[in-house]
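Annex B. Sample input.
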Amino acid sequence: MKQLCKLVIFVSLGLSGAALESAAPGVFLPLIAIGSDHTPTSVTVDSLVITDQKMRVTGATLIRGADLPLELGIMIDASSSQRDAHLDDYLKAARQFMDDTIRGAADRVFFIQFDCTQHATRWLKKEELQGTSFKIEIGGGTALYDALGMACKQRMGPRDWRKPTRRVLVLISDGEDNLSHITREDAASEVLRAGAVIFTINPTDLRNSFMGEKILVKLANLTGGLSFNQIGRKAIPDVFARIHEIIDGMYYLSYMPPDASKSAVHQVEVKPRAPQEKVELSYAKKYFWNR
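Annex B, continued. Sample output.
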């Protein structure tokens, strides 16, 4: 099994939820740090050089994601191309994942299965999740971008920087789309507006889904998430366990963006202050500032 995996770690000092809500609103961007041994490593804000719209950022902090509520979306591609993808096993693992990650009183989750159309639950909290059952029914064509647009626009909505949360989408799909009414760029724009981190899981053989794999990797990289590809049946629980571990360890890079009076898409670059430092950084390359 060939697995493409960039492990996400967010590192630094924690602030209480009350302090976050009372502070002036700023961006909250995921940061990925991988050491020379290919495992998560620690960084400090002083060890980073951050630019936003090509302007140097000062006064940034690193905030523990564990102090923020979790807003989670599970998306499963149930189109005909996934007929042999063991979706029942994915659903079982996803259900356990939801039970394990939705813990706090403010945590909530929704579930979408999609083919040519989307079938979504409402937001569910812990007590509601316990009494909800999920079922997968294989359909026909694939409207992946429509499903992403629905998840981000109709469920999550635009990111409210005054109410910071961990916003996470887990997308199980081969990345193919043949029926959407919106484009990939439109879907990416909705993801940016929602401020969601996307984790993608592709159960399809890369020989049959090379373009789909590239799309999934781009979605994950754009948002500061990670992508798993060519996942064998036995590895499904391990993949969800890895994502669970990452979500539990989330931290966010926070600062006031330049030209904060205007709503716009911002481009970000984060580099180690010491070029010789053996650490690989990945992060949300863009975000939509909508103050």
